[in-house]
Structures are given as C-alpha cells and as structure tokens.
Design brief:
It contains three helices and 42 strands. It is mostly beta strands. It has one domain: Beta Barrel (Maltoporin, Chain A). The longest helix has 14 residues.
Length: about 800
C-alpha cells in the first residue's frame, strides 16, 4: 500500500511537472525545452565537483580516496532539517542519529555500527563518532540538538579517522562547514509555520567589507509544540522543542596571504523527552496492571495523548563559544593554520516520559498509596578549550599535512530520581500527584572529571613520476595521549563505601595511542578512481559514574580495510561511488550489572544487599565488522536528478560473560550474546528532484524515501540462561522504517527591488504518516515498551534573498 501510494504520487508529480530540486551539491541551471542545445548549455546540466575538506584541505570528493557522503545546503532545505536529530530519518544510510534514550537533549551518533554500546551521556565517557564544526571538536553528546546555522556542507567520513581527526573517531567523523562572510551585502531570510504549532525563522545577513573585514550575522529560531499531550494541567507534553541561537563571524583579510576568521555563537535549546509507550501488557502471571481509572495503560499504536498525567519540565541546554582560525600562506603552496576555541555547555535533563511503564506494581493486590512515575533529573556542565596547529603544503609529487592538537574539557554532572505520583485506591483506578520538592530530594550520583588530550599527526600523499601521475600513495601516523582525572563523590545516594572505607572514589588514568593509515589510489582515467585503504581509530578510555569503584577502563579500537571506487560516466551525467570494508573491533567497552557488595582485606564478605551498580568492562575477544556502501546520482534529462544510496552493515561481537559478582554471591561464567545497537543491517535512501522554469519563477519539487530494517537498542537479552534455553527472553528488534519527505516550491520570484528573489514552499516530513517503534524493549514484568517515530509534520515557508 505504501509503495503504491508513493508510485502514484511520483507519477502525478512527474506528469504535472511539480518535482524540482537539486540533489546533493548539484548545479543544474534550468534551460527552456525549446532552447537550442549547445556545449555550454549541455555542460551546465552535468554533475559538478563537490568540494570536501576530509584531508584538511579543499579538494574534490571524487579524487579523495575516502568513503564520504555529503549533504549540501540545498539538501538541508529540501528535507527541512532543523538540527542534526532530523538526519535520523536515514538520509545517509551509514549514519544513524537518535535521541539518547528518550532525551532530545543528547544525541547518539553511529557510523557503520561502531562506538555506541556504552553510555556516552556521562562525563568520563565518549562516543565513537567525532563531530566537528568548522574544525572544532564538539566534546559532548549533549548540546548537539541545537539548531544549525548557515551550513555549506555536512560531510560524513565513514570508517576510522584516527590519523587526521584523532580520538573518538573509530566509527568515523561528521565534519560540518558553515558559509563564510562574503564581504558583499546580502540577506537571506526565511519564515514559516506548520502543524503542532511549529514555526521557524532564520536571518543570515552579510555586511559589506570595511577595511578588509567582512562580517556576517545570523539568527535562528525554531519551535514545535508537544507531539504527545500530557494530561496533567499546566505541564509540558512530550517531544516538544524550542530552539534559538545567534552567530556572528568576522573575516579579516589582513594581507593577500593572511586571514583571521573569528566567530562567536550562543544558543538555547529547550526540549521535553519522548513518550515511552507500553504496547503489550506484562506476561508474568504474578504481576498486576493498574487500571488508571478504567482507561488502561496499553497503547499499541502511536499515541497523541499520554495515559497518565505527570510533572514534566523543560530540559534546557545553553551553549556558547568562540573560535579563531588563522591562515597564513608563508610560501607558495605552504600554509600555516591555527584553530583556537573555547566552548561552554550547561544542560539540564528532566525526564518523566517513562511513566506508562511504571504502571506495573509488583505482585501486590492493593495499590493504595503505591508510588509510580519515576522522574529522572540531571544537571550537566562542561567547558572545553582546544588548540590545533596545521602545516598544509604541496611540493612536486608530494602533498602533506602535519599538525599538533591540545584539547581539555572539564565536566561535572549529578542525577536525582524520585516518584511523582501515587495511587489512591486498591485497584489502581485513580491517582494523584505526590507532594514533592526536587530541591529536597537527595542526589543519587555525582561526579566530575578533567580530560586532557594531546596529539601530533602527519600525513603525506606521494605521486611518483610514473604512469602519467595516476598512482597515489598516502601514509599517515598520529600519536595521542589522553588523561582523565576525576572523582565520583556520590553513588546510590551516598558517599561510596568500598571495603569498609567511605570516601570519594578517585580516577587518575592515562592512555597512549598510535593510529596509522595507508592508502593506495589509482586514477584509471579522469572520471574513474579506485583505492584501497587501511586505517585505525579508537574511543578513549574512561570511567563509569554509575559504578561503585569508579575503576578506569581502557580504550576500544577499530582496525579496518576498505576498498572503493569513485566513478562518473554518461558524459558526467551519472556518478556512482562504492565502498566495501572489513575489520576488527577490540577491547569493546561493555556495561554489566553488579551487586553492591563489600569485602574486608582478607576477601571476606562484610556487606551485601539488593542494590546494584553498573560496571564497565573491556570485553575479551575480537569483533568483526564488514559492509558495503553505494551512492548513485543521475541526471537523465534536463532538470531531473535521481539519487539512490544503500548500506549493508554487519557487526559481530563475541559472546561475553558478566565478570561481576551478582546478588547470590556468585559470578556467572556463561557467555551471553551481545547485539550491535542502533545499527540496521540494511538501509537505503532515494530521491527524485525536478526543476521546471516558468514565466517569472521556477517550479521546484523534491521527494525522498528512506528505509531501514530496524535495529536493537539494548545489547543483551533480558533473560539468557543458555543457547536455545526455554526460559530465554530475547532482546526485541525495532520495527523497520519507511519515511517519505517532500517539498514543493515556487522559487526565484523576481520582486524587482534590488534583485530580491522570493521563494514560497510547502514541505512535509513523514509524508505518509508511517509509524514504527524504532526503540523497543521487553521484560516479563513490564511488557513491551518503546518509542514511536514522529507523526507527519508539514508547513509552509517563505524565503527572500537579496
């Protein structure tokens, strides 16, 4: 049914000439059908070069021997992308973006299925994908959901990037570049509104250069009301956001060979969590389900109203930062570059989105005064400073880049959790709000850490004077030393007590790494390039702030072989890029539950109980990674662009036993299966765009369809007692997804005043209103629960440029 609807929509759009928009970084000037064909007109319809900076210098995507996907500014407009979270619909199949559990205030980033097994929301832990904006590393998962500014390109570099990008890039890197001040007076303004009370506004203003200083000022605002209503009057609903930000940049061309680029940005991001739905009841026969006033708690389809009213405040993120980039061409084709930055982040995380799954209250038959609706509160603060120096040069037959990096961040967090509601009758058919004051609720856990990283790197590409300069050999090496010094001073609501000693637990650990890279590339001709690459990357070691002992764990590492081809054909009307890879995954950081037990100096058990902590362990054995990726762009006729991309991803992690003592005093030696999380095995994206010149305007349209076959959110089974055991309760997999987005615009309407152009557009995300549970969990005492994807959103917007 979905495929039929999509086909009908595509045929109707093609027949009525309403599909029109450029595909990633495609320059296709409209030519009237009756215009005579000539070489210049034909050339305008060809694919144009996409410029990337994956190797620290501007160069063509097609001649850069790395698997890269690129979204340009027009792609971002086509898909109505407000923040990085909107890339979670699958526009780049190898990239998975999702909220951290229910929290839109922190993002999970995954490339090729690597680096997301652990809780990177903590101060002393990191993700395996590095996020860079204009060369500055974003150190935290928090703060990534803010509205994005005037983006030139989003480059997704796939596979380990340890040599040029360093730590925490074992899966890859997302390299975002913004548009620079032009030195000419320009204005680009957008305003729009949509369903769920949404609105969006952007102003990008370029000022004329003054004394060789070009200035750009821009502001953004984006708002959407809650997608799931909260029955408790006066409280925010679920999946709400309100974002705003300001960015100012000054580019000083002090001399023909020297520029200084200073930027300041500040943003505010308020959001509420996703709503965790209970879709099937518990299966345990001893568990009773509260009736909630006869309404029940099971909601098998995507809800628009929660089944219980709960307190819900805004999670508020505030970020600001400075960047100074200096470029000095000290000699012909030799450039010195400096990137200095300071950033500050404050993020509150308030999550009461899981109330529906706490309706199960043990085995009691009397619910009177039973508490439920556990509210999770956390405060997170971080500041970071970084300094990178680069030497970028070229001499006959050799291109090179070398540099050094200093990075330091100071992070602290705390967490509280308490129940906000309770039942008032034995049947659980009525409930009231608890009297609570979060200021008087004890801190459940708290920690702080200072992370320092220093590194030096070099990479060179040698083109020997043979084979008409078609052979290119690249070698690179990076040395990095990481150190983390911190303290866990509250765990389970108290100062840690370890083996009879009550005191904060200290972290003081350091690790050194060397990450090499070798790449052999060959130009078969102007339009066909092949390469083979071996590279490594790692995710830094750290400590778990849910642990009792705050014991350090080591980095996890990836080593990967990749082969690829980048080709253009049909007189540059078609582009096909493919890559295949295989590799090893070692020292994988896994979390396991452990019992809160204490021992004396002789190893005798002195304290036991039912409280648990979460401990992190570098798993033994070697995981295996393999996959294939393909991207196709085709311009079959004037104005029509078709794109398609596909990724097959396989991550195999060895079965691993929980090495920590359990409540019965034993250590379970049974290896249990470990699932790759946030990793669809198969994913694909396709788009059709078409542009039709008309009388006084251009009609543009864009539709894209995005598919994946679902993924696991938890990496262990709820219950596992052995291979094929009857009592096993297996980890459920999220549903497959098929998301269609669209945009139709009346563009470039001449307003006659100073060359001003008006574009009016209608857009829709999840056009077919498809629904699926992308995050799914199950236990016998709770039932099946999870998060649904967002319902259809749509709106109108107007843009003026002059």
């Amino acid at each position: 049914m979905i495929k039929t609807s999509m086909l009908r929509a595509s045929l109707w759009l093609a027949g009525s000439s309403l599909c029109a928009l450029s595909a990633p970084a495609i320059a296709a000037a409209p030519v009237p059908a009756e215009a005579p064909a000539d070489p210049a007109a034909e050339a305008e319809q060809q694919l144009t070069d996409i410029v990337v900076t994956a190797e620290k210098r501007p160069q063509s995507l097609q001649t850069t021997p790395i698997a890269i996907s690129v979204l340009g500014s027009q792609d971002i407009a086509n898909r109505h992308v407000t923040s990085l979270l909107d890339l979670g619909d699958g526009s780049i199949p190898s990239l998975k973006v999702a909220p951290f559990y229910s929290r839109n205030s922190a993002l999970v980033m995954n490339i090729r299925g690597i680096g997301v097994l652990s809780d990177s929301n903590q101060p002393a832990r990191d993700q395996g994908v590095g996020i860079y904006i204009d060369g500055v590393y974003m150190g935290r998962a928090q703060g990534l959901g803010t509205a994005i500014y005037d983006v030139e390109n989003i480059e997704v570099l796939k596979g380990p990037q340890g040599t040029l990008f360093g730590r925490n890039t074992e899966g890859g890197a997302v390299n975002i570049t913004t548009k620079k001040p032009s030195g000419e007076f320009k204005a680009n303004m957008t305003a729009g509104f949509g369903n769920y009370g949404s609105y969006k506004g952007e102003v990008h203003l370029d000022l004329p250069a003054w004394h060789d200083i070009a200035v750009k000022i821009e502001g953004v605002v984006a708002h959407r009301d809650a997608m799931v209503k909260n029955p408790l009057e006066g409280q925010y609903g679920f999946n709400y956001y309100n974002k705003r930000g300001l960015h100012a940049e000054a580019l000083w061309r002090a001399a023909p060979n020297f520029t200084a680029d200073y930027a300041f940005d500040i943003s505010y991001d308020a959001s509420t969590p996703l709503y965790l739905q209970l879709t099937t009841p518990p299966t345990a026969t001893t568990v009773k389900l509260a009736a909630l006033g006869g309404a029940g708690v099971v909601q098998p389809v995507r809800a628009d109203t929660a089944n219980v009213g709960v307190p819900q405040q805004l999670s508020i993120g505030k970020t600001w930062g400075h960047r100074l980039t200096l470029d000095w061409e000290v000699a012909s084709k030799i450039t010195l570059k400096s990137i200095s930055s300071y950033r500050n982040l404050n993020q509150s995380q308030y999550d009461n989105g899981s109330a529906a799954t706490t309706m199960v209250i043990g085995t009691a038959s009397n619910f009177t005064n039973a508490n439920f609706s556990r509210y999770s509160l956390a405060q997170f603060r971080q500041n970071q400073v970084s300094q990178e120096l680069q030497v970028i040069g070229e001499v006959p037959h050799l291109k090179f880049v070398a540099g050094a990096l200093f990075y330091q961040e100071k992070v602290q967090d705390n967490a509280q959790a308490f129940y906000t509601n309770h039942f008032t009758d034995a049947a659980g058919s009525a409930y009231v709000l608890n009297n609570y004051n979060m200021d008087t609720v004890s801190i459940d856990r708290a920690s702080h850490v200072t992370s320092t990283s220093v590194g030096a790197f070099g990479q060179a590409t040698y083109t020997p004077p043979i084979l008409d300069d078609h052979l290119h050999l690249t070698g690179g090496l990076r040395f990095t030393r990481d150190k983390k010094v911190g303290q866990l001073f509250i765990i389970n609501g108290a100062t840690p007590t370890v083996n009879g000693v009550t005191q904060p637990q200290q972290l003081n650990a350091a690790w050194s790494r060397v990450d090499p890279m070798v790449n052999l590339a060959f130009d078969l001709n102007r339009d066909m390039h092949v390469y083979g690459k071996w590279s490594t990357g790692y995710k830094s070691g750290g400590a778990n702030s849910r642990s009792l002992t705050y014991a350090p764990f080591n980095p996890e590492t990836v080593s990967m072989f990749e082969i690829g081809a980048k080709t253009e054909f049909l007189n540059r009307h078609a582009r096909l890029n493919v890559a295949a890879y295989t590799g090893s995954y070692k020292d994988i950081q896994l979390d396991f539950q452990a019992t809160y037990q204490q021992f004396d100096a002789n190893g005798n058990l002195i304290t036991t109980g039912t409280r648990t902590t979460t401990e992190t362990y570098n798993a033994p054995g070697t995981g295996r990674l393999k996959g294939v990726e393909a991207e196709l762009t085709l311009i079959p006729i004037t104005g029509l662009t078709l794109t398609g991309s596909y990724a097959h991803t396989s991550v195999k992690i060895p079965n691993t036993a929980n090495p920590f003592r359990q409540s019965n005093g034993t250590i379970n030696t049974l290896p249990i299966p470990i699932y790759a999380v946030y990793t669809p095995t198969n994913s694909a994206s396709a788009s059709i765009t078409y542009e039709v010149p008309a009388n006084g305007f251009t009609l543009r349209g864009h539709f894209d369809a995005n598919y994946d076959n679902g993924f696991y959110q938890g990496y262990t089974d709820p219950v596992y007692t052995g291979p094929g055991a009857a009592g096993n309760v297996y980890q459920p997999k999220g549903d497959s997804a098929f998301i269609v987005n669209g945009r139709i615009a009346f563009a470039d309407i001449d307003l006659g005043a100073g060359g001003a152009k008006l574009t009016v557009a209608g857009w829709a995300r999840n056009l077919l209103n498809e629904q699926h549970m992308f995050y799914k969990a199950f236990s016998a005492t709770v039932g099946t629960n999870g998060f649904f994807n967002e319902a259809r959103t749509y709106g109108l917007e107007a843009n003026i440029k002059f």
